Amino acid sequence: MTAEAKVSRGGKYLTFVLNEEQYGLEILKVREILGVLPITPMPQAPHFVKGVINLRGKVIPVIDSRLKFGMMEKEYTSETCIIVVDVNGAWMGMIVDTVKEVMDISEDQIEDAPKVGGGDSGAIRGLGKVGNQVKILLNIDKVLSDMIVTDLPPMEM
Question: What's the CA gap between 99 and 92, in Å, rounded?
Fold first, then answer.
């Protein structure tokens, strides 16, 4: 990895929890944080796609992050949130167990993720070491790039 790419990893991250593990997203990718709203199911969608929501007239696909990451589904609680993120210009919702905080993670607190499996998909920006905790810093564009939806019909509500 080039020094330029490493420098760009430090910054502000929104941290959230899935299955008792902490993750982080670049704050600049986050558009909104919502409580769980009514979700309209989409026929023939992948198992991790819960459906779509209407956010002030904009139809946004919503995924269950636990299912996308191969975890067991969990009943939603009062702490469950939808994080609306910008993925290459398209808005998408990610259901997470709970949102923690916005934190500054400097480049010297970030290590490269170990190479596991068949190679590097680029989905993990790095591992943020904050105190005695490790936060998995996601490259949300890579994590959700297969989800970009361009031609949803208008939704009437």
Answer: 16
Torsion angle, alpha carbons of 147, 15, 107, 122, to 10: -20
Distance, in Å, from the CA atom of 75 to the CA atom of 15, rounded to the nearest integer, reads 21
Q: What is the pTM of this model?
A: 0.85
Give the CB-side neighbour count of residue 97, counting CA atoms within 13 A. Answer: 17
How far is residue 85 from each of residues 44, 101, 115, 122, 131, measured CA to CA in Å? 23, 16, 26, 18, 27
Token look-up 């400097």 returns: 106
Q: How many residues does the chain have?
A: 157
Q: What is the dihedral of CA 32, 126, 7, 95, to 10 degrees?
A: 0
Residues 58-78: tens digit of each pLDDT: 999 999 999 999 999 999 999
Residue 41 CB coordination number (10 Å): 9
Which stretches of the chain are assigned E, i.e. beta strand? 11-18, 21-26, 30-35, 49-55, 58-64, 81-87, 90-96, 98-105, 110-111, 124-130, 133-138
